[in-house]
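Here is one chain, start to finish.
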Amino acid sequence: MDNTIKLKVGRNILTIDEDNLILDNGVCYQIVTKEVGHGWNSYYPVMSKSLFNKLKKLGFVSTNSMLKEKAGAKFRCSGVTYWQFNICLMIDNDYTNGRWFRMKEFRRLIDLTDDEIKFIINELLEPISISDIIRDATWDQIDWTIVTGGWQSEDVAFEIEDGITLTYEEIEVPFEFTEEEKNKYQQYLFAKGCNALYTELQNNNPYLSKN
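Its structure:
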């Protein structure tokens, strides 16, 4: 039996087994036993807080005093720990396809049009531009690139380019969304027929009246 699973972290699809470890410092969650990129551009993949919390809630990752001691000794500081993957449990729960749930009668995320994607991104992020929209049929996710205004000094204005991933659960961005923004996103998906799990979002949903 192949005791590995495929895990999509950002734009990277990783093959994970029980030897892989997540380093948790309370802010960042790095898979320190994996590297992505090449040469000087290689780095440890960082999973979103949302993904980490889902894995933790379902018991798909776990830690213990030995792992905490090992991480503390490695990085010579307290407040860090390693988490290991429970691959057998993930396989038993059919996580091998990397999806949290299967959409059956509802619209798939990748069926959203470019205009529908741009509408909610403009509403929540107000980017300068949106480009490179890529629909990932295997993972039922959408990746794209946005440019935001960044910040401005007295002499020069900076623009920031970020890679963004649209999933059923969230918009994966390198910054924090407010609870109101997260709720708006879920309301929008429900209004477009893409989310069967959030039926409570019918109430006070401004997007249901928009085509």
